[in-house]
Amino acid sequence: MESKKASSIFEALSSDVRLDVFRLLVKNAPDGLVAGDISRLLDIPATNLSFHLKALVQSGLVTVEREGRYMRYKASIPLMLDIIAYLTSECCSGNPGCCRKFRRESHVDPCFLPER
Amino acid sequence: MESKKASSIFEALSSDVRLDVFRLLVKNAPDGLVAGDISRLLDIPATNLSFHLKALVQSGLVTVEREGRYMRYKASIPLMLDIIAYLTSECCSGNPGCCRKFRRESHVDPCFLPER
DNA sequence: GACATATTTCAAGTTTTGTTGAACTATCCG
DNA sequence: CGGATAGTTCAACAAAACTTGAAATATGTC
Cβ(B27)–Cβ(A93) under 8 Å? Predict the structure, then answer.
């Protein structure tokens, strides 16, 4: 991943509307939700939601497919993990002892955290 | 963490300049770097760098302290881990089997990833 | 104190983003 | 076909962000 690609992904998460939408889709992974459900659950006007969903899809963080007359949106968990990897890579220049200390105090859901 | 706070943190990472700066500071954790070093290493004009460093500090992702006539900037690893936790929380509504599959294929630096 | 170095603040202009309502497109159902 | 439902696109405006050079502030050195 290069810097411009990564920053465009963070840009997609930089609006509270889009962040709420994305987290809702993460919560509803892997099935996703159709636009109307998102609109109702988060109380966002359809027009505005469509604007933000488009931005999320363009970033790659969200995928979309037609389902009859509905549009189903899903979070891309692999890309989410990729930007986490990008952000944390080479932390402390790879000194594991340093990172381990921080990590022990973190609240990252262990569900995401491979063994080491 | 609430949504507006979290999105303002992602907003801080939404510029490629700031993302490069932050990653450089993560790499140089826990000691950090002074502004001039960052400017030289990333080839960013002092004025512009100052603008972006201010944004990073305001987000909380970076801290700063005076050191003689230098200003030393450091990445806040705990806050970085907090937003990762926020982003990934309740993934798949807490269904561990679902997440484990994604995580096995991820490239997240194991340095950050607690055992489970 | 005078001067050099490190960094920030300010002002100005350009560009980008967010929001809204109205109009448009696509699909389903009778 | 015609109407209803689901979503998107468009136009317009308001608000915010990025970049730059010039000026200002703070600290160290002679």
Answer: yes
Question: Nearest nucleotide to A67 by CA–C1' distance?
Answer: C27
Report how far residue B60's alpha carbon sits from residue B86's, in angstroms, rounded to the nearest whole number: 15
Contact A78, B103 (CB under 8 A): no
Output the six-digit token pair for A103. 């990590």
Residues A99 and A79: their CA atoms lie apart, in Å, by 23
C-beta of residue B69 within 8 angstroms of C-beta of residue A80? no
Within 13 Å, how many C-alpha atoms sit on residue B72's CB side? Answer: 11
pLDDT in tens, chain A (116 residues): 888 899 999 999 999 999 999 999 999 989 999 999 999 999 999 999 999 999 999 999 999 999 999 999 999 999 999 999 899 888 888 777 777 778 777 777 655 544 43
Q: Cα-flanking dihedrals φ and ψ of residue A74, to 5°? A: -135, 145
Put simply, whether the predicted model's pTM sits higher than 0.85 gets the answer yes
**Lookup result for tokens 């140089």:** B28
Q: Min CA distance, B52 vs chain A (Å)?
A: 14
Which of A81, A25, A90 lies closest to B103, judged by CA?
Answer: A81
R_g over Cα of chain A: 16
**How far is it, in rounded angstroms, from Cα A51 to Cα A7?**
19
Chain A residue with CA closest to B114: the answer is A113
